[in-house]
Amino acid sequence: MWFIAFTLFGGLAFLVMMGHIDEARTLREWEMALTPEGKAVFSRVATQVRHERSMAEQSYERADEARAQGSWEEAARFLRAGSAVVESCSGTLPELLRNLSVLSWQAAAILPIAPLHPLNFRLAHLRTMAGVHTVLHHLLATTRERFRLRLAVLRYGFRAAIGLLLRNTHALVARPHARPAWDRVAVIRTDLGTLTDESLESLRVLLGSLAAVQVTAGARPAREATRG
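The structure corresponding to this sequence follows.
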């Protein structure tokens, strides 16, 4: 029994150690920074994503204002508008994350990226999801595996959060007086914002990784030497 526990603990410790070694080697051997082209791509995608999110948020905020004023029909109208925007844009970020997963195979090395933090989420099952991700993140041995796991977890998070938001919104349209549902919608919107920010961070990391330049031992990075 003790031998099995020791073996299991030792195996887990070995995987964690290998993961940290891979991260250190990646940082030491590769110079990763966004190129002007990468910055342009990031800016374009981030602008589109934030614009879609802003449209949905404005509708929900106006619905909340109408509710506060007792204008229930107006609140339901804005809720329907907000859910329509969310539904029409629901595939944007999951599709982006899927594409990032495919593109990650083309990078010579993947820049280390932190796991999702459970306390950044308010929904219980998203917190659990982030906690499981943190554990698995430290058990994987390479930065590429960790990055692809992150993308998969974010895709799952979006599907779950968007489904919850739409269900609660439709319930509010039918019963706009239900205060707990308004509170749930506010929490879900906050978590969708967190998922959006983490997705854009993943995009930034991959763009930097795709532009990676290998550092020659004892020499300055290629870009630095060119600048000099």
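The two ends are 61 Å apart (CA to CA).
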